[in-house]
Write a structure and sequence with these properties.
The protein is an all-beta fold. It is built from no helices and eight strands. The termini are far apart.
């Protein structure tokens, strides 16, 4: 059974942001855990990034941070990446295309999460 869990932690990068120029930088740290009983390799990523002006960016690519990790049952892979928004609040969601050791492909969903500067959301 394919059971990939994805946890996300976000951070606003104030020193790289320029709010007066509508330029907000965020980092996100992703933990991908194989909770299933079959090894699975992360092949591709798909992100949908939406700012509070409803501007949508879609990002598709091979692997994550230049890697295509193979996760055995019970293993996890952690990486940090980033994105830029034109507003102080936005959301990201997406999926990882995975290849199971038995040859089957499946998508591991990434639930929507919020990117926000401090003290914007209560």
């Amino acid at each position: 059974m394919n059971n990939i869990q994805v946890d996300v932690q976000t951070q606003y990068i104030e020193e790289q942001s320029r709010p007066d120029q509508d330029y907000y930088v965020f980092s996100y740290t992703i933990t991908i855990m194989n909770k299933g009983d079959t090894p699975a390799k992360l092949l591709n990523r798909h992100w949908v990034i939406t700012d509070s002006n409803k501007k949508v960016q879609e990002v598709r690519g091979e692997g994550v941070v230049g890697e295509q990790p193979l996760l055995k049952p019970g293993e996890q892979f952690v990486y940090t990446s980033g994105t830029m928004l034109e507003t102080s609040v936005g959301t990201m969601r997406g999926s990882y295309e995975m290849l199971s050791d038995d040859g089957s492909m499946f998508d591991a969903p990434i639930d929507e999460f919020v990117l926000s500067t401090p003290r914007v959301l209560h």
